[in-house]
């Protein structure tokens, strides 16, 4: 068994495997985003969790593109559904904030995208400003109800389907 591991490791160093990602997401000046506000805990950890979650969603969407294409995204602004408001005091100097989701605080995202082929030649590109004014009037699936970014992901999925349906 040990010899097998050594053999595999030596082959990997001789013939490196190239893994091509289907998407790449850049977060441009996230400190200036409209609303990516944490309700409790660290703001940096919350942002990191939101960004990682949305990157995974872009990667999932990009798998629908032909294998030879790659999706590049540069997010310029993000406004999560709802608004963070002060909550009740739960102890001395300990106020818990809440994200209240109402129809006037709809999800918005602004980004540029570029789809390239194997040779990094641009196939499609553009500036996108998405917002869903009727996000609460649509059918709410279990997935959206359980996911704290459900509305934002649905917004991105709808755009992707419309843009790359052919």
Explain what this protein looks like in three dimensions.
There is one protein chain. The chain starts with a helix and ends with a helix. The protein has one domain (21-163). The strands form 2 sheets. Strands 1-2-5-6 form a 4-stranded mixed sheet, covered by helices on one side. A two-stranded antiparallel sheet has the order 3-4. It has 4 helices and 6 strands; from the N terminus they run H-E-H-E-E-E-E-E-H-H. It has helices at 2-14, 43-62, 142-146, 150-163, and strands at residues 23-27, 70-79, 83-85, 98-100, 108-116, 122-131. It is an alpha+beta fold and 166 residues long. Helix 2 (43-62) packs parallel to helix 4. Mean pLDDT is 79; it is low at 4-20. The longest helix has 20 residues, at 43-62.
């Amino acid at each position: 068994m040990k010899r097998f591991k050594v053999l595999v490791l030596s082959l990997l160093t001789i013939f490196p495997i190239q893994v091509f990602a289907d998407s790449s997401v850049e977060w441009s000046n996230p400190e200036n985003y409209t609303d990516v506000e944490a309700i409790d805990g660290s703001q940096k950890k919350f942002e990191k969790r939101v960004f990682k979650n949305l990157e995974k969603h872009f990667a999932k969407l990009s798998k629908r593109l032909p294998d030879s294409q790659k999706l590049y995204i540069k997010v310029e602004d993000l406004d999560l559904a709802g608004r963070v408001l002060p909550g009740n005091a739960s102890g001395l100097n300990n106020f818990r904030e809440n994200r209240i989701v109402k129809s006037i605080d709809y999800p918005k995202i602004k980004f540029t995208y570029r789809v390239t082929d194997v040779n990094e030649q641009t196939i499609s590109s553009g500036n996108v400003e998405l917002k869903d004014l009727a996000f609460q009037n649509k059918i709410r699936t279990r997935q959206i109800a359980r996911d704290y970014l459900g509305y934002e992901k649905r917004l991105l999925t709808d755009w992707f389907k419309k843009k790359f349906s052919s």
